[in-house]
Amino acid sequence: MARTESDILIPELEEYARQVEAIKRDATDLVVELSEAQFNWRPEAGRWSIAECLTHLNVTARQYFPLIRAAIEQARARHLLSAGPFRHGFLGNWFVRSLEPPVKRRFKAPKIFVPPPDQPFVSVVPEFMGVQEQLLRFVRDANGVDLARAKVHSPASRLIRISLGQSLALLAAHERRHLWQARQVKDDPRFPL
Q1: 162-176 tens-digit pLDDT
Q2: Closest by alpha carbon to 30, among 154, 186, 141, 145?
Q3: pLDDT tens, 70-83?
Q4: Tell me, what CATH number does 130's domain have?
Q5: Contact at 8 Å (CB) between 163 and 88?
Q6: pLDDT digits (tens, 9 = 90+) for 27-85
Q7: Which domain holds residue 125?
Q8: What is the dihedral angle through the alpha carbons of 19, 23, 25, 31, rounded to the nearest 10 degrees?
Q9: Total number of domains in the chain
């Protein structure tokens, strides 16, 4: 089936879609054949398990997704449309860079993003994969929207607003960060076999 012009994503969004597909592959590779005990194993007190890393990403998505949806809808209603390329602000670019793995600086998760412990594999992993599919839908829905002028505020603080494009990049970087963190758990020499 031939692609129509509306199916073709602008380069920035094409890159975000590529990143989400890579995240799906990395997550699948990470969790394949894990037992429930392995999934919820913590290397030490105060460090998250693989389950907590993925649950944190699911919790984060539940907080961010309504804001991203609203930003896309509001941008379309206000005719904030463009095919780019886009210039994004310093603060948002710094946030994105600071989240990329390998982790150089640790951040304490705001309370609204803290995952509950001991979550079952059968609910966490399918939800995580559903989050990725929803993120891909947002990437497609944002095609044609001015990714620099449409703004998203942080669910943790309404004082922090970054562009829609940076918000999509931030979510992808955040997911890579916590998949990297989860991989460190799996690679720990004490990881249960």
Answers
A1: 999 999 999 999 999
A2: 186
A3: 999 999 999 999 99
A4: 1.20.120.450
A5: yes
A6: 999 999 999 999 999 999 989 999 999 999 999 999 999 999 999 999 999 999 999 89
A7: 7-187
A8: 180
A9: 1
